[in-house]
Design goal:
alpha+beta
Amino acid sequence: MSENQNISTNELEARLQKAENIRARDGVVWKDKFERSHKIAEACGLSDGESVKLAGRVTALRWLGKLMFGRIYDIEGEIQFSMSREEIGEDDYKFMKANVDLGDFIGITGELYHTTAGELTVKVSHYDILAKALRPLPEKFHGLTDTEARYRQRYLDIISNPEARNVLLGRFKMTQAWREFMNKNGFLEIETPVLQNVASGAAAKPFTTHHNALDTDFQLRISPELFLKQAIGAGFDRVYEVAKDFRNEGMDAMHLQEFTMVEWYAAYWDYKKNMEFTWKLIQHLLMEMRGTLQIEYQGTELDFSQYDTMDYTAKMNELFGCNILDFDDVDDLKKQLIDKKMFDADDLQELKSVPTLVDWVYKRKIRENIIKPTFLYNYPTYMVPLARHSDADDRCLDMFQLLVCGAELCKGYSELVNPIQQLHAFEDQAKNIANGDEEAFNPDNDFVRAMEHGFPPISGVGLGVDRLANIIFDQPTLRDVILFPMMK
């Protein structure tokens, strides 16, 4: 049988006939309910002699004459069961053998005991066939090995691959623990629009769609930032959102066009306070998910009990051989790189603005070499038009990013709440767009108007859920921590 689960006509007909046999006996093949006494994981913690009613998908069947052993599965556990002809009666025993296949759902009623091999088992006194699977599961010992089939038929991957199951279950438990941490620290989860008139809040190219009823084009959000900050302006003290964002950019192991971010904003915090909070959050999630701050990611040992820091502007000045804060003309800054023979003019031709150029160089010369958890800080003001200018040097931002193994996990800053500066920053972004920069921030005049009504001091952070899960659960690509990844 192929990995895409194409099945023969004979096999399908055989399973359909078994379904008819179940209908003839029970009246219904696909039952409406089953009253469980415990989940499988709960039953695994009980003592011998306890009575249980469990349900799950059949993953193993072994017939030994008058005795059989099988296994049922749910997302959190698996348990062995046994049936004997004497216990359940010859007719029911034969019917089970003739009509239940791997992949079917059954309910079992019985008593817990340990076999001579020491395995916890349910001695079944009664069974119910709850649902018939018309297609078989992947071959037991190999599962789904074709990568595309694993992602496209994720449900089969989870059933047959314990590692995939544990990673994805862990990822969602991590999000649950994340919410609990935010809630305990006084944050309120709110919702903001996915369809927006102007998708802003990050340097990214948006997806565009058309709203038929309004006969207007909308953009899928690239970040919930502007709406979350308006909520702070409305009086919500601390807010967060587990947000689906969409960016129409390239796809690789660490970038997908649809991804999940948690963004949070706190009134009266600055970026230093938020940096401390971010670190405590990550440490909390590591302890909840892995039980340690020392983990391995794709062969690299990482220690999250401590972090390094790096001055972004100082590092870039060292690389460019000049002070990048002194430049507002992209061609002049390109000349610095060409004169140093770091890049050819052809390499830089498509870079249309100073922030795009600086970020492009950073990603090729610095980012990939940052392995240990490292907070970068002190960015030029032109890099992020929504961040607060530093009081010490208004050419720099009160901003940080956390990097691990060359991946940017989060970005945070003291928010720009000065509407005059915000308007000027958006005007600069509009010029960059006019010059052909497709990833410049989209100006949002409604946001500026909201700011003119008054914002308190604010600090916010956006942290990628998929990337953090990728590292915590030691997975090679983002698709491995996404339940249903995008496929062509």
